[in-house]
């Protein structure tokens, strides 16, 4: 059995290493910093609205570059924001769908908790949908998992075992319960807020490289 666990460990760590090429740090010039995910190769990044609350933002890329970022769309109700940076040919994350997920599946969340860069945490999926008690659910579908999110995880990706984006890390509802806005909601957000300035190929294909 030890050989099976070693293979699983190697596969998961290799997949996470690949996904981290698309995970950025979003800095607002204060003590706070969140995460974001490269959605399109030409500098489109998805994160939380509360991470992008300040007008002056910078994005630290995995290759060490730190670039000024512009907020091109922001929706507090869905806690999502789209940023643009002056970079091209960036590595992007494959997109999944929360609508095919089932309780009990293994998921992971990436980000920079407490300033620890490129960290990962994992757990099982609790459920998907909009029927969470005691939370403002306006226009949002949640992905809820039994994993630990901390300050600095916000805006980073929640992924499935194939390394596909299934949600944008958003909040904790209690010890060991992490919540993400679904990737399907993120697609709707981009389509509605960017409108004619972007195409469905940008929204749906993520401009893979």
How would you sum up this structure, described in words?
- Helix content is 17%, strand content 37%.
- The protein is α+β, with helices and mostly antiparallel strands and 209 residues long.
- It has a domain at 98-185: Beta Barrel (Thrombin, subunit H), CATH 2.40.10.10.
- The strands form two sheets. It has a six-stranded antiparallel barrel. A six-stranded antiparallel β-barrel has the order 7-8-9-12-11-10.
- A hairpin with a 7-residue loop joins strand 7 and strand 8.
- The longest helix has 18 residues, at 2-19.
- The protein starts with a helix and ends with a helix.
- The model has no long low-confidence stretch (mean pLDDT 87).
Q: Characterize the overall form.
A: globular
Instruction: Give the distance, in angstroms, between the N- and C-terminal Cα atoms.
Output: 36 Å
Radius of gyration: 16 Å
Task: Give the topology string: H per helix, E per strand.
Answer: HEEEEEEEEEEEEHH
What is the CATH homologous superfamily assignment of the domain at 98-185? Trypsin-like serine proteases
Strand order of the largest sheet: 1-2-3-6-5-4
**Count of DSSP E strands?**
12
By CATH, the topology of the domain at 98-185 is Thrombin, subunit H
**Proportion of residues in helical segments:** 10-25%
Low-confidence stretches: none
CATH architecture group name of the domain at 98-185: Beta Barrel
Described by strand count, sense and barrel closure, the largest sheet is:
6 strands, antiparallel, barrel
> Structural class, from helix and strand content?
alpha+beta
Q: How many helical elements?
A: 3
The CATH top-level class label of the domain at 98-185: Mainly Beta
Overall mean pLDDT score?
87
* Approximate strand percentage: 35-45%
């Amino acid at each position: 059995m030890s050989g099976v666990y070693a293979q699983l460990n190697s596969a998961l760590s290799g997949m996470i290493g690949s996904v981290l090429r698309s995970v950025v740090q979003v800095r607002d010039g204060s003590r706070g910093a969140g995460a974001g995910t490269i959605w399109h190769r030409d500098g489109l990044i998805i994160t939380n609205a509360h991470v992008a609350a300040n007008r002056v933002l910078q994005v630290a890329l995995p290759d060490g570059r730190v670039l000024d970022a512009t907020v091109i769309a922001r929706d507090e109700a869905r806690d999502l924001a789209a940023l643009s940076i002056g970079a091209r040919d960036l590595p992007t994350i494959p997109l999944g769908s929360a609508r095919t997920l089932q309780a009990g599946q293994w998921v992971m969340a990436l980000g920079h908790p407490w300033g620890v860069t490129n960290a990962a945490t994992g757990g099982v999926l609790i459920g998907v949908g909009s029927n969470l008690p005691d939370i403002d659910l306006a226009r949002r579908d949640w992905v809820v998992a039994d994993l630990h999110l901390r300050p600095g995880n916000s805006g980073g990706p929640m992924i499935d075992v194939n390394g596909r984006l299934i949600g944008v890390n958003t909040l904790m509802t209690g010890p060991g319960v992490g919540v993400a806005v679904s990737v399907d909601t993120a697609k709707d957000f981009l389509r509605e807020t960017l409108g004619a300035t972007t195409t469905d190929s940008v929204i749906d294909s993520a401009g893979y490289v």
